[in-house]
Amino acid sequence: xxxxxxxxxxxxxxxxxxxxxxxxxxxxxxxxxxxxxxxxxxxxxxxxxxxxxxxxxxxxxxxxxxxxxxxxxxxxxxxxxxxxxxxxxxxxxxxxxxxxxxxxxxxxxxxxxxxxxxxxxxxxxxxxxxxxxxxxxxxxxxxxxxxxxxxxxxxxxxxxxxxxxxxxxxxxxxxxxxxxxxxxxxxxxxxxxxxxxxxxxxxxxxxxxxxxxxxxxxxxxxxxxxxxxxxxxxxxxxxxxxxxxxxxx
Length: 249
Known about the structure:
Elements: H1 15-22, E1 31-35, E2 50-54, H2 58-66, H3 71-79, H4 91-105, E3 109-115, E4 122-128, E5 135-136, E6 145-150, E7 155-160, H5 164-170, E8 182-185, H6 191-199, H7 203-214, E9 219-220, E10 223-227, E11 234-238, H8 243-247
Antiparallel strand pairs: 1-2, 3-4, 5-9, 6-7, 7-8, 10-11
């Protein structure tokens, strides 16, 4: 005896209503608040130094993996509640969002296989995505521009912060064009003047400029100590963020 299957008459029903009924028990999307290490507000157009993110979906994951370049930016753009371009964020703020996104989407722990640099033993270790990597917050909050005194020439310079996109696009070459980030020296804004002055400044002045440009003393410390279970050697390792960070436990 053949079995008759019920086929709904979609012509008389709204497809959206049917889909919503099927997904009626699906949990509502919840956004988690992430305090930005920079505690910046004005430079991002925010009233509070926080952004809100939701857990990534399978569709988000596919889009991230499909992009050979810019996958992380595409992922964040989809998961941040506020209308903000991830590429405009400071690197430290972007990393904080990515670590929190991983924790709420996949889990707090991340399993790693590490090869000991001394005895070459391969070992499994687990890190807590949030607890193993402390966050240092800015005090006072970071502004988009900062005025500093160059000690060697006793002249003021106005330095612009570098965005995460600029680091991603230029890498270490970003430091070859410091004149783009030192937007004023001793009241002069001419690109030629800035470039020539910078080329003649002592090392300590340049490193002061780079320090303000990159704000390295805030954000997530991605380094952690790994102790080899076989030879007991302690090694300093760094957590790298790639597609596996968001797809593996």
